[in-house]
Amino acid sequence: MIEQVLLKKLSDFEDKSLLIVDDDNPFRERLARAMGKKGFIVTQAEGVKKGINSVKLKKPAFAVVDLRLNDGNGLEVVKEIQNSNGKSRIIMLTGYGNIPTAVAAIKEGAIDYLSKPADADDVEKALLADPNTKAEPPENPMSADRVKWEHIHRVFELCNRNVSETARRLKMHRRTLQRILSKRSPR
Q1: 3-class secondary-structure state, position 169
Q2: Which of 30, 80, 72, 86 is nearest to 54 (CA)?
Q3: Does a cis peptide bond (omega within 30 degrees of 0) precede residue 60?
Q4: Which domains does the chain have, with CATH numbers?
Q5: What is the pLDDT of residues 42-81, one digit of tens each?
Q6: Are strands 72-73 and 68-69 parallel, antiparallel or unpaired?
Q7: Buried/exposed code over 134-167 (b: 16+ C-beta within 10 A; e: otherwise)
Q8: pTM listed for this prediction
Q9: Using CA atoms, how far apart are residues 167 and 184, in angstroms rounded to an integer?
Q10: Are β-strands 17-21 and 62-66 bridged in parallel, bridged antiparallel, or unpaired?
């Protein structure tokens, strides 16, 4: 028998504040817009320092924190959130998922752990799910082609849109990369 996830509604929560801490600017912006449309009051931060400062200004009820940030580890932000508001629902996001980091995130107070790229529906389900039940697998998971496309574009953005540097880091031919970059995203 599969355990069903009990989802609460956002309207069940008095405080709808959501902090998104991620150094991948395009991803963070897209997620913030999508979560805003779902009714969350979104604040964004691009690193550990700004995330901690944001927590000190406004204790968020919800948080989505990337594990690896340019200026440190997202677990530092999770600790700060837990110290200021123990009832916060925190989701850890990472492109580098592994068991030890998942365990560390849960020990620090995160209620779930999602691999990047995660879409807004997956994040919303994780934030509103009952932490005592098992999460359902995603209804419409990304195709392998889409995951590959997202990863290539993330590396491209991290290399300041430099095709040659991106190709070198991805260990692929520059022209192959240019062809991939010129195509629309797969479904």
Answers
A1: helix
A2: 80
A3: no
A4: 10-128 (3.40.50.2300), 144-182 (1.10.10)
A5: 999 888 899 888 888 888 989 998 888 888 888 888 888 8
A6: antiparallel
A7: ebeeeeeebeeeeeebbebbbbbebbeeeeeebb
A8: 0.67
A9: 18
A10: parallel
